[in-house]
Structure formats: C-alpha cells, structure tokens
Amino acid sequence: MLRTIQLTRTDNLVYRLAGIALFVALIAIGAQIELYIGSPVPFTLQVLFVLLAGMVLGSRDGAATTAAYLGLIALGAPIAAGGAGFSALQGATVGYIVGFIPAAFVAGWLVENGAKKVWQRWIAGLVGVAIIYAFGTPVLKFWFDAFGNGASWQQAWQWAVAPFIVADILKALFAASVVEATRALLLMNSDTVKEQ
C-alpha cells in the first residue's frame, strides 16, 4: 500500500512545490539522455519521469509538473530533447510534450483510485504511454504533411511508436515498481510532521 503523509497546510504546499520542481528537473534531465534509432523522434527517459511524476505526486501535481515543464520550454528554457527550447514546440515532436500533461494526470488518477499493486500501476503507466502516443503520433504525421515530405499513417507509426513500444512498456513497469520507494524517499523524515 502506498504511504501517505500527514502535513500542515504550509508544509503541504512546500512539499508539493518541491516535488513538482524535482520532477520538472528529472524530466529535463531525462530529455538530454537521447538516442536516435532511425526515427525523427529520439529515445529519451522523459516518459519514465512523466509517469513517475503522476504516480508519485498524484494526478493534480503530476499534471502541474508536466505543464510547468511545457511552460518553461515555451519561455525558451533549453530543457527539451537535444537542449531545445521554444523550437521544440514548433517541431514534429511537440505532440509528445503536450501529451505528457494528460498522461501524467491519468496515470496519477489511476494510482490514486485503486491501482495499488505493481501490476495495476503498470497498467496505469501503459495507459499513460498510450496517451502520449495518441498525442504524439498524429501531430508528427500532420507536421510532416505540412512541413516535410508528407507521411502516411504507417510511416507515422513506424517513426513514432514502433521503435519505442518495448522500451516504453519497460519504462512503465519500472515506474510502477519504484513508486513506493520513490515516494518514501521524497517523504523521508516526514513522519514527524503531523496534521494540525
């Protein structure tokens, strides 16, 4: 069973903001670990940290984390894949970045509402991955139709989903497996904080 923490209102806000900031940083770091594998979309660790943000922080703060990440990119912070800033929101992969917000929210909501066992959290993570694909794939296709040489739905699948599906299934499993340990680490020493 996931640990919960009893906090005062002030401490609650501090812990929540610290968690959001931590996961924004982790998503940004994950974006810099990239590998191109024959697709215009790089393999990164962003999806892992997006799923963890939702599962660990909850639906509301997971979505806030990914929205903050998107907002920083919009302001020009070089934290997208390849160190891109605002230009990442003009490229073929913008759908993935936007999809991080509902993915974190839904994965977090599912964990909050009954996905307590690892296999249940894994399914929550897979739903999050599917949401990212649902945003990323059509945007990639339409971007290449508008600005590139065009792309069929089959090509979009081959570029946006097929090379990543196994790795993303494993990322979802890893995230599901470390939720409790990550939450415990974030809340270390918090057992002395009591609700007023």
How would you describe this structure to a colleague?
- With 196 residues, the chain is mostly helical.
- It has a single domain (9-188), classed as Arp2/3 complex 21 kDa subunit ARPC3 (Orthogonal Bundle), CATH 1.10.1760.20.
- 67% of the residues lie in helices and 0% in strands.
- It has seven helices and no strands.
- The protein has helices at 9-32, 46-57, 59-74, 94-112, 118-147, 153-160, 165-186.
- α1 packs across α3, α2 runs parallel beside α4 and α4 (94-112) runs antiparallel to α5.
- Mean pLDDT is 88; it is low at 1-8 and 189-196.
Indicate the topology.
Layout: H1 9-32, H2 46-57, H3 59-74, H4 94-112, H5 118-147, H6 153-160, H7 165-186
Quick one: biggest sheet?
A: none
Relative strand content: under 5%
Q: How would you sum up the global shape?
A: globular
Strand elements, count? 0
Mean pLDDT: 88
The oligomerization state is single chain
Distance between the termini: 24 Å
Assign the CATH topology. Arp2/3 complex 21 kDa subunit ARPC3
Query: Measured on Cα atoms, how large is the radius of gyration?
Result: 17 Å
Q: What structural class should be given to the helix and strand makeup?
A: mainly alpha
User: How helical, in percent, are the residues?
Assistant: 55-70%
Output the CATH class name.
Mainly Alpha
CATH architecture: Orthogonal Bundle
Report low-confidence residues grouped into runs of 5 or more: 1-8, 189-196
DSSP summary: helix tally:
7
Which series of helices and strands comes N to C?
HHHHHHH
* Count of discrete structural domains: 1
